[in-house]
Design brief:
With 305 residues, this protein is of the alpha/beta class. The chain has helices at 21-36, 57-66, 84-96, 146-154, 159-172, 282-304, and strands at residues 42-43, 72-77, 101-102, 111-115, 128-132, 183-185, 189-191, 210-215, 220-224, 230-232, 265-269, 275-279. A 7-stranded mixed beta sheet has the order 1-9-8-5-4-2-3. β8 and β9 (220-224) form a beta hairpin. The radius of gyration is 21 Å and the shape is globular.
Amino acid sequence: MNNTYELPLDEAGYAFGFMDEYAKKEVRRAILKAICIPGYQTPYASREMPMGRGFGTGGLQLTLSLVGGNDTLKVIDQGSDDSVNAVNLRQFVQMTCPGVDVTEKTEDATLIQSRHRIPEKLLTEAQILVLQVPYPDALVVVEPSEARRKTMHGEADYSRLLVKLYEDIVKFDEITISHRYPTRIHGHYIIDPSPIPRWDVPKLHQSKALILLGAGREKKIYAVPPYTLAEPLAFEDVVFSVEDFRDAAGIRRTCSRCGTADSFLDEFSNEAGEKTYQCSDSAYCDEQLAHQTVHAQTTNTEVAA
């Protein structure tokens, strides 16, 4: 008697979500454990994906394990919907998950996969954010042994990490970590929140959305469940601060495209070699432009009347 279960395949010869059902179930079990123990690095059997490790295989496996036919997916890279990595991952999901809608609007997405950014628009309880992670362990910068790091995490021994921050203050009068800022989750585990800028770290705190972080190369999954305490590691007399986009005169720089002053900005050089700034979150920038256009049209109509 043949008890082999044959997976249903689509027209392209793939199972829905590329991975087989057993692999997706194993990933989902690891996700559940990660949610139950906030910040804990849950090991899982990371699969080979049709792309090089380091190009988001961990996040992609989470996305493929969770996405369903009724989901709407948004994929961003460094805040942009149109970067090479974002476009390729989005097309891969569309190819292997027939029926799944894609969008560039944050508010329309039920599942968001991101590399290096959290969207500017606040997420909701109906959304899941998946972050791609190259190095999941915040302690790797002070302790090379994984066995020792596990003990340190279990004992919540982060003194050496605090010493590293203190050395920064002694040398530079401030903590100079620009991304991957160590963050304590639910009063215990300190995580590496992926290479998001400091600007995005406060968005982890009491987030309405479930935030999942996946490292394919390191074979780890961890989570920040909704409404969970997330505290950037700092000192009482040297508090955590986000990036300051003020110029030498103390004036807050604005986006050269939409004019907003409340988003994370990327620095560019124009044709004249002058520095200019633009919203990192392309969807947020487009939305601000659309609002300005509607407002201008409404104003012109009222004036004409």
